[in-house]
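User: I'm curious whether this sequence folds into something compact or stays loose and floppy. Could you predict its structure so I can see for myself?
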Amino acid sequence: MAYAYWKSGKTEDQASFDLFFRKNPFKGEFTIFAGLSDCLKFLSSFQLSQSDISYLRTCMPDCDEGFFTYLATISPDKVLVEAMKEGSVCFPRVPLMKVKGPLVMVQLLETVFLNLVNYASLVATNAARFRIAAGQQIKLFEFGLRRAQGPDGGLSASKFSYLGGFDKTSNVLAGKLFGIPVAGTHAHSYVSSFSGLDQVSSITLSPATTTTPSMDWVSTCVMWRDTLAKDLNILVGEANQGELAAFISYAAAFPASFTALLDTYDVIRSGLLNFCGVALALNTFGYRAVGVRIDSGDLAYLSNKVKSMFVMVGTIHNLPWFGSLDITASNDINEETILSLSEQGHSITCYGIGTHLVTCQGQPALGCVYKLVDINNTPKIKLSQDVEKITMPGDKVAFRLFGKDGFAILDLLQLPEEERPRVGQKVLCRHPFQESKRAYVTPHMVELLHNVVWREGETVGEESDLARIREKVRNNMKTVRADHARSLNPTPYKVSVSDSLYTFMHRLWLENAPIGELS
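Assistant: Here's the prediction. I'll summarize afterward.
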């Protein structure tokens, strides 16, 4: 297209594009806007190199040489970008970004911006939905790198899962690059690589403090395991010795952060007893274990059994903290699994979620589009027999209107020359396409949704700190009514237009729609 524009003499044309989506993902009624900071980074570093242009010559051998000379001169210095704040809750048809500038330049940004926003917003929204399902008290760990779509997809998933509300990631590179807290446990293979205590006989552990007397680490673990077996009336012979050896070894390596995977052999008859024995030995050495992970079986039942055992051990040995050890559940968990576990009743304190989070199995793409709405101050509209695909022409100003309870009522799009909505004054809000759907709204707070984020070749005031954007997501979600945010049959959120924009849009629609002839 760039070459065709150039051949047509349209390089000086000024264009405006809206980047938006038509439908919320996952059958929900909200979306989290993410990826803006990456778009701004792309703009900051944009430059077609001589190597790029030489390659394009090989792809387009019939193009005039003057076009390649022109490509070397284009830059985003004359581009203006207005956008919602990254981390904002957003809704269909309201532009996430408004991109204005020389036609060729802003057209070239289409694919990049869509790529950077689509997946980021999809994953952040998925993460936010997992957070709603789990509640605020349960920790969420992203464990998806192994199942993500390649290393780039894995990094993006870790970054935007954290932005959407997850607490930690197992992706160490994401932790390094983005400052995300990292967490993880050992695999089943670590446990099964041990077969007996003779493999750990030489392992030692230094006490946490100099006041703690020196002891033999392995024999202390075995002593506590055997003591617990008598206290709890569990047969030592049923517990796997290789698993005990693995826990002894792993705890010696990570005494201050020991988390054990319990289900390599049997959670109740082996893993739980072996873990508790090693955890009490760590306590003797002045350390505290962190908890356990369960990766298979009836997660609700097993978590409750593990919790009751922890409380019992804590009571018997006067260690109240033992009853509060973490119980992490994994095993292909999705949003519906979490909701089901909550209905059943469980004692899980943390979820490790991978495949369904990073691959967004509920919906593989968000479906953002990038549509021309104005060229040389002439509004443009795209028509379709599918009304949902008709675009809203021209420049628009977007506001969010809030009720007296602090929750968002609706988003309102209007023409730039209109007076902005005022607190306490009713405003007519119309459905974009259905004439009879309209209502007066009296807002108690009004928020302007778009701000300039890129102007004259520089970023303008946009927050790029991931932790702060994450907090913005959390605060924004507090303004969304529970019936809009719920997983099952959420109430549709209204996106309206002013009366003037409705009239303008439908007039342009009629002007551009072909008139049929009958005979």
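Summary: Residues 2 and 108 are 7 Å apart (CA to CA). The chain has a mean pLDDT of 96.
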